[in-house]
Amino acid sequence: MTVTLSDSRSPNLLTTSTRRTGNRILKKISVHYSMIPAYSVIESKALRITTSALTTVLILDEGEYTSDSTLVFPIDKLSKYYIISTAPPTREFLDSGSHFTIAATTDNTHVSIVFAIDHNTSISLHDKEYGNGDTFTVILNNFQTFQIGHKADLSGTTINSTQPIAVFAGNKCNNLGYHGACSMQMEMIPPVDEFDDVFIVPPNINRYQSLVRIIAPFQTKVTYTFGGMETTTTLLKTRYTDFTTRENEISLIQSAKPVLVNVFAAGSTKSQVYGDPYMMTVPGINQYLNQYIVDVPEGYNFSFATFIIRNESIFHLQINNTNIHEYDVVFHSTITVGPYLFGVMTVNVPSGVIQVESTDGSLFGMLIYGQRRHDGHGYAANALLTRICRK
Question: Helix (H, G, I), strand (E, B), or coil: what is residue 96?
């Protein structure tokens, strides 16, 4: 494994440790806090990880009292068109609002940002005010980053670039208006050409509510079903719609054109939990794989894996070559998608590197999340298309 920084950055900003679990190796790279991007400034604060074998990369971003996690996409899956999705801010200050960061992989990358923002609000960049529909441009070189933050909701903002870029988005300190203190919610945003059109959204265990946001890069008709109710709406380009599910409620989203779906777990007041919100990208059913090797971060009181799979195959799943024990299952329900019955199952999992596979080759979705007092994190094990899905 080689970790590369810009020539302007000292390698002393990184420390690496190694832990072996069986034949698997977990390498932890700790990044100095000075590598956190500032607002509205071009900086060389990206890093590149290169390995000699196929690798899963996870970011666990930790603040003083909060954390969240995201899967990191390989460079060959990055693209030139993105749409921003964050949680709706619940407080009138910057940390509660929308944030997104762009990282360039190639010199002379021209980036155009078209803002979606409340019509009565503007954002100041380089001594100029930008409102809804206005375009801001910036040129970035390899390893350079540019971060934008605003107290308003910037969901629906689009980003176009001349070369592939990486985009991260979320909220730094937001409580979603439910129980729990302000909490980080962060994801690496998949490019638009990796979006899907059918999604099964599982519940978040120990969270009495989850906010689901559907955001459309193209005008499309969307139908979402939960709690026995079906709603159909038309989303205009760059618009979004939200709905809220209860703790043990599964929802189904079907769209005429590809969309992005994020779920935000609300805070919890349950005894011994008190977990704060976190953000996850929901994988579409065409993004499922038949095997994952992922890391379950240490330091959380409860760690869960949720699997979404055709129900007849649910007990063909194995974790570290071992069948799932019934006493590890904390949730199991089903939902019908077209002619198929899908099972949604959540199980307790240990921290560390785990391998999950279906012994019958069935494809399945997988999400990992953890909770501890006044904190929580979550991420999808895959949020990229494995085959073309365009209607």
Answer: helix
Tell which phi-psi region holds residue 266, choosing left (phi > 0), alpha (psi between -120 and 50) or beta.
beta
* Rounded distance between C-alpha atoms, residue 258 and residue 328, angstroms: 35
CB atoms < 10 A from the CB of 257, how many? 17
Structural tokens at position 201:
């959204």
Judged by DSSP in three states, 68 sits in strand
pLDDT tens readout for residues 314-332: 989 999 999 998 889 999 9
Burial of 285 (0-12, 13-18, 19+ CB in 10 A): buried
**Cα–Cα distance between 108 and 163 in angstroms, integer?**
8
Question: Both ends of the chain: CA-CA distance in Å?
Answer: 40
Position 22 confidence tier, pLDDT thresholds 50, 70, 90:
confident
Confidence of residue 374 (pLDDT cuts 50, 70, 90): confident
Supply 352's token pair. Answer: 């560390």
Q: Comparing C-alpha atoms, which of 351, 290, 380, 386 is closest to residue 72? A: 380
The tokens describing 88, both together, are: 């709706």
Query: Which of helix, strand or coil describes residue 122?
Result: coil
Residue 84: Cβ within 10 Å count = 26
User: How is residue 90 written in tokens?
Assistant: 């619940």
pLDDT digits (tens, 9 = 90+) for 186-237: 999 999 999 999 999 999 988 778 999 999 999 999 999 998 899 999 999 9
